[in-house]
Amino acid sequence: MQPDLQGGPEGLRVAVVGGGSWGTTLANLLAEKGLRVELWVFEPEVAEQIRTLRENRLFLPGVALAPNLNATTNLPQAVADKELVVVVVPSHVLRATTAAMAGALGPSAFVVSASKGIENRTYLTMTGVLRETLGLSDLRLGVLSGPSFAAEVARRMPTTVTVASRNPELARQVQAIFATPFFRVYTHADVTGVELGGSVKNVIAIAAGIVDGLGFGLNTRAALITRGMTEIRRLGIRLGANPRTFTGLAGYGDLILTCTGNLSRNHTLGYRIGRGERLAALLAGTRSVAEGVHTSESVYNLSRQLGVEMPICHQTYRILYEELPPKEALFQLMSRNLKAELDDE
User: Fold this and answer.
1) Per-residue pLDDT at 52 exceeds 80
2) Is 217 helix (H, G, I), strand (E, B) or coil?
């Protein structure tokens, strides 16, 4: 079955599931292109703000939202009869959220994940979870990823991303639907690599924030980013990804942005840990999600299960979950046995 999403701005029916900063930004981008977009949000106060003030003051303050973007807290109603559904919820609630909408999803709907993470315990990427909860084949699934802070996209700053699908026609059509003069979209066939790049980079970004918080310099950050990508690539190759994917937007592009940008929630969390704050207090004090915290646990357990060497990710996990002092973690990394730089692969 081939996708048919070319009904034009007037005819295409779109739902975006998730009213955080990224979900609201993507919904508004599509609405500004002339599509009627239904945005499902969890918080009733956010839905009310969007309907009455045309603004998401909790997650995307200061951005005026298009009049043809409708917000609702009724999930089945949001996705019913839609041709394209974009899922943008935190990884740890993706399973429950999408299971709740499964019965209302139309038989010809196509689903694009803009969520980033690896599920705890199952070690599934987000499209893997969607396959289970929605009963979809790979031909009806895609993933949108790349270096893209929501606040900058919402303000029309030039941004490039990639949409990956095992159905090339779906990828091309989603590319056309999202593309604007400030939001350039490429297509990709390596769903596994694109999802892993977008997920594991959040763990490395926490580590980058920690070393910045400890007061180390640009040398340290550059080393961490480079060796962090080596770890992402190792896991990707083990899981069947194309190594070239990690040189692109969903690889180095997203990694560099998240490890260096002051808008990165994961880097900010790591920075505050490096300055001495405790993870529990940081998580209790925010409604935004730093995906790297959950993904760190998945990567730690999955890499050990597969026998993939990922020392930076392992030390980040130990800092977050075992209260290993950050300086001790860095010392252990720097004092490991010496070796050749390049892996054998």
Assistant:
1) yes
2) coil
Q: Domain end: 189, 224, 239, which one?
A: 189
Per-residue pLDDT, averaged over 81-100, amounts to 97
Residues 212 and 236 in one domain: yes
Residue 343 lies in a domain: no
21-to-55, 56, 237, 320 alpha-carbon distances in Å: 11, 8, 32, 25
* Domain harbouring 114, CATH code: 3.40.50.720
List 116, 201, 327, 339, catalytic entry: 201
- Catalytic, 327? Answer no
> Residue 223: its pLDDT value, please?
98
Angle between helices 191-213 and 218-238 (to 10 degrees): 150
How far is CA 345 from each of CA 250, 302, 338, rounded to the nearest angstrom? 21, 20, 19
Number of domains in the chain: 2
How far the first Cα of the chain sits from its last, in Å, is 37
- pLDDT value for 285: 82
Q: Judge if 30 and 79 occupy the same domain.
A: yes
How would residue 5 be classed by pLDDT, with cut points 50, 70 and 90?
low
